[in-house]
Amino acid sequence: MNNLLSAYFQRLLKSRLYWCLLGLMILSGIIIPILAHREMIAYGTDYTLESRLVWHFLIIGFIVAIFCSWFLGTDYSDGTIRNKIIAGNSRLKIYISALLICVIASVILVVAHQITIIGLGTWLIAPFKTDIHTISLIIGISILATITFAGINTMIVMINQNKASSSIICLVVSLLMFGISFYVLSVLFSSDMAHSDSIVKQIYEFLNIFLPTGQLLNLINLQTTQATEMIIYNILILVISTGTGIMVFEQKNLK
User: If DSSP states are collapsed to H, E and C, what string results for the chain?
Assistant: First the structure.
């Protein structure tokens, strides 16, 4: 599997798409604190570093979907996966190496943005006002949610040989998850649900924490009271998506 990972890393270093996405994340980490600093000086706006750190939670699912679908989809369109099997690599190793490269690449995107905005934001805005434990949970769970996104998108791409349809499906799935999470959150904040103890409310509360998109929306509001559940659900989704992807990929007839 080391050879497979080495080949993936070489492709990653040559990927213009990945460098563009990485540049976008770093650039946004530079621009956001600069704009906040200007507004603080010009209008006396009171910004916190916490409020600026979490903006990428709204788009990271789509960023990961774009990268995974195009990067892994190229293996099918170029016939690389068949060549890897012919060369004697097992399908399990091929799948795991694909998952690992997507996870590593996606985490680098998030961490690069966070390091940039924290470094520059501490200077231009202000140091964190929230305790370090809460900040660590927010950053850690956001990274874990990013890994979950990578696992879901890897599954979609590895069981679908069509690069174009994989890209569309990955983006649609990300959009659906965010749409559901926004809707669930709006319902939970509605007056009808405020004092309700119904089973329907419990279902909505479960979806709000179960979906990685719902977790990120909660983290935007610095809500970490259910951090343990968030971690467990992320791991559960990653295990289920990876297990399903491996089983289907093992039986797939590669054209």
Answer: CHHHHHHHHHHHHHCHHHHHHHHHHHHHHHHHHHHHHHHHHHHCCCCCHHHHHCHHHHCHHHHHHHHHHHHHHHHHHCCHHHHHHHCCCCHHHHHHHHHHHHHHHHHHHHHHHHHHHHHHHHHHCCCCCCCHHHHHHHHHHHHHHHHHHHHHHHHHHHCCCCHHHHHHHHHHHHHHHHHHHHHHHHHHCCHHHHCCCCHHHHHHHHHHHHCHHHHHHHHHCCCCCCHHHHHHHHHHHHHHHHHHHHHHHHHCCCC
